[in-house]
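Re: weekly structure request thread

Next one in the queue (289 aa):
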Amino acid sequence: MSAVFSTSAAASRPFVFNREAAAPAGPQPEAELSEARPPQRVVSSQAFKDARLAGITPASQLAVRSAPEMVSSGIAEMDGLTGGLPRGCLTEICGSASSGRSTLLLAALAAATRRGEFSALVDASDALDPQSAADAGIELERLLWVRCQPSQPPEGRLEQLMRVADLLLESGGFGMIALDLGDIPPQNARRIPLASWFRFRRAVEHTPTVLLAVERQSIAGSCSSLLIKLASLPRGMEMESRSAQPPIPAHANLLTEVNITAELLRSRLDRKPVRSAEITFAGKTAWAG
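Done, posted below.
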């Protein structure tokens, strides 16, 4: 089936789809080909004006979307890798348990509240420790903490999280909205429809809000502008290779610092495809200074 585009669409008329317009297979005489070819038309400036009045923007006049404003993530090494966190975009932070997800989340919220911005954290598993948040530098009076019921099954907590996220994005006024799904099993988190993430992306677009999603695995697909994968290894237990397993300590150790590796897997902020890049930074416990 072939589609024939009619210039009358500029006058708000529908497109014309014609099955009989397809040329028959096989060679045709030169005379028939020349007669079947539609005449060339020169589009005048008045046609462009009519198209704009009809809500159609010519491709030659489409504006290039400007790059979003970037704000600090609270970790200098992360800012050097990604340029910061983009406003008006969805950023995914994924990693297994003890991979540094909470370290990056608390650092980002602390940086936002230090800028004088109100932030919101939708905690799907009620996992935030207020004392740890305060020790990380978060100004709690500028943080809205929404706690989902941990007694509910994952599906119920996800439903609460999505509803609250809709309300927060519609209300506006937040410099950062973080969705913590880190303790939700990936098989449950993947049940969130892609249309919901697309709705969130459109809702945060053209706003000064940084939207973060913290999870075990990437679940937002192409709706996220940044995708960062985290992994961690206790200090002094460096792996000889990526495939090697860290040694098991022979006695009890007090964990004071963790080396966190961050890998940039996706960036839709530039027109050029991103190349995989990694950084390493340290996360220290509060009592270790």
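The radius of gyration is 26 Å. The longest strand covers residues 257-267.
Next request, please.
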